[in-house]
Write a structure and sequence with these properties.
By secondary structure, this protein is of the alpha+beta class. The protein has one domain: 2-Layer Sandwich (Alpha-Beta Plaits). It is built from 5 helices and 8 strands, in the order βαβββαβββααβα.
Amino acid sequence: MESETVTPLDVVIGLGANIGSPEASLCDAALRLSQLGHLTALSDLYRSLPVGGPPQPDFLNAAIRLQYGGSAEALLAAAHELEHRAGRERRIRWGPRTLDLDILWIAGVSIARDGFHVPHARLRERAFALRPLLDVAPDARDPVDGVAYREVLQQLGTDQLVRVRSDWVGALAGQASRGMDRPGS
């Protein structure tokens, strides 16, 4: 009997945090996410202004790209568990967060059901998500209409984003460098 080969999902996950120790939270989350699949790329770290919600500190944002052998729903559940472990409380819409993990994009996949959207429902409105996504997937396109995210980001602009650093997960980057690419660098 032949075993069925499952093609891993090529996924970009956005990471954000703005309370507690944001950089430490993002580093920990990136390491834990990398253990769920094969890490292929890690974005730079960016500082951005909060969008919507109450007055709050600036966010740190990044993205990772990985090959994931399960379903998108299973990955979302794992991401929510990591947020919970980091102390995330979902009390205020667009409020401050110890950790925010979003599946931004899956190569060639479109999902729209039960409040779960891939690509992320507001991806094309948010430079703070698109910039890190393009660090790890420079040729990414919307799987529904084929629009290049690079063009969307050019229209949005990046005035509100500040690149903080490249090697923000030093140990992780060192561990993963043997199998990790850094597109565009």
